[in-house]
Amino acid sequence: MENWKDTKKGSCCLFGDYSGHRILDFDEMNEQLNQLVHFKEQEAIGMTTFQYPIRHFTYGTGPYHVILTAGTHASELITNCFLIHFMKELDQHMFLDPKQFTLHFIPILNPEGTIILTSAIRTVIPRKITPFWEELLCIQYYTNSRLEDNYVIEKEDKDNKLQMWMFRYADSNCIPKKHKQLRESVKEIIETEKLPKGAMIAWSSNGVGIDLNANVPNPRYIKAMRQKIPFYHELRLNQISMTSKGPIGCPFRSNQFQFEPENKAIIRLYKDLIKKEKVLGSFIYHACGNLIYYLDEIDEKVNKENSIQNTKYNLQIAKKYQEATGYRILKDHKETTVDYMLKKILPGTILVELGNIRSTPLSQFIDSIDLVYSHIMNDNKKALIETIEMMKKLYENKG
Ligand SMILES: [Zn+2]
């Protein structure tokens, strides 16, 4: 029972790892990134609508390139925290040979969303809280969301959700004043769309209320989009429409489709790198379900010469990643996402959904239930190292 810690006042008596804080807000993330020694910060891959740089760090200078991204959906905060944790570990232990690899990290793909979301979190979970209380509040959020999910199923309830109600004082004013334009944008969205109180804690979108992964020309609910009628999730957040600007699901700003600057930037990074370098693949992190999605090009009728080899390669990567995580492997059938586009652009891309616990952004930080947090951090670290090494071997054998 090595995980039992002494119960100093204000520390903990729960099962799990409480050696430090687990939740990082936007500023803390950047502080940690600034301290990396064996990483090089490259020019930002692009700027967001409100002029936040999308930071790009590389590790190593080797011939084999890999791209890793986190935080497409801001509310999937565990992805940012995992990737930054991995970067710190890599910085310290250098367990991948920097002469062999060049790893490209985009740890905060959606800076505006991350500012909005983490500002909301800080209204209830301040920086200086003890790890024990951080855990308890995450559990409170989780248990509230469990209860609410049951109400949706059993009572067809569409009220505001208890877990959001915990954050009802999180409005645009909780965003630090230095983010003036972003604050105004969020304020306007909340007012115009009449978002329920606490909606900021569910913020997946960017600062203009567009969901980066849904930001494709033909989203799943294109009909509702065109007719400007509300469209709701079946289960979670069934009180927030996905066809208007807000925390979740809205694919574009007006009737006319346009890529958001964050997506233009990431697609450009993929395409430029593929043109110039040996890119082994990429890892895209989301946070829902302990799953690994790979692209079956044959199944999806992707019209490429190498579709058989690509599919085989994608599956080998998914299987290797599964060894260390135990995550379930699924073929991709979500062609209405930007992630799907990226998988088509770059063979060797998998989408990893961290955590088999419901309700982002807080439940994935819980450690006293099934060591959810520790498993996410440790298993995925191991999986990444082993999978990247294997990708190099496969590439060498191929060619
Ligand atoms: Zn997601």
3D structure, described in words:
With 399 residues, this protein is α/β, with parallel strands linked by helices. It folds into two domains: 26-110 and 260-398, Aminopeptidase (3-Layer(aba) Sandwich), CATH 3.40.630.10; 113-227, no CATH class. 39% of the residues lie in helices and 11% in strands. It has helices spanning 26-34, 77-93, 111-121, 131-155, 162-165, 180-192, 222-227, 261-276, 307-325, 338-345, 372-398, and strands spanning 39-42, 56-59, 64-70, 101-106, 278-286, 291-294, 328-331, 349-353. It has an eight-stranded mixed beta sheet, with helices on both faces. α9 packs antiparallel against α11. The termini are far apart. Zinc ion is lined by residues 73, 76, 213, 286.
Tag the structure with descriptive keywords:
single chain; disordered N terminus; Aminopeptidase; 11 helices; 399 residues; alpha/beta; 2 domains; binds zinc ion; globular
Give a quick summary of the entry:
The protein is α/β, with parallel strands linked by helices and 399 residues long. 39% of the residues lie in helices and 11% in strands. The protein contains eleven helices and eight strands.
Number of strands: 8
Q: In total, how many domains does the architecture comprise? A: 2
Task: Count the DSSP helices.
Answer: 11
- CATH superfamily membership of the largest domain: Zn peptidases
The set of bound ligands, ions and cofactors reads: zinc ion
Quick one: overall form? globular
Order of helices and strands: HEEEHEHHHHHHEEHEHEH
The whole-number mean of residue pLDDT values reads 93
CATH class of the largest domain: Alpha Beta
Write the CATH fold name of the largest domain. Answer: Aminopeptidase
State the separation between the terminal residues, measured CA to CA.
48 Å
- Numbering strands along the chain, what is their spatial order in the largest sheet? 1-2-4-3-5-8-6-7
Rg, Å, rounded = 20 Å
> Biggest sheet: strands, sense, closure?
8 strands, mixed
Helical content, roughly?
25-40%
Structural class: alpha/beta
CATH architecture of the largest domain: 3-Layer(aba) Sandwich
Q: Uncertain spans, ≥5 residues at pLDDT below 50? A: 1-8
Strand content: 5-15%
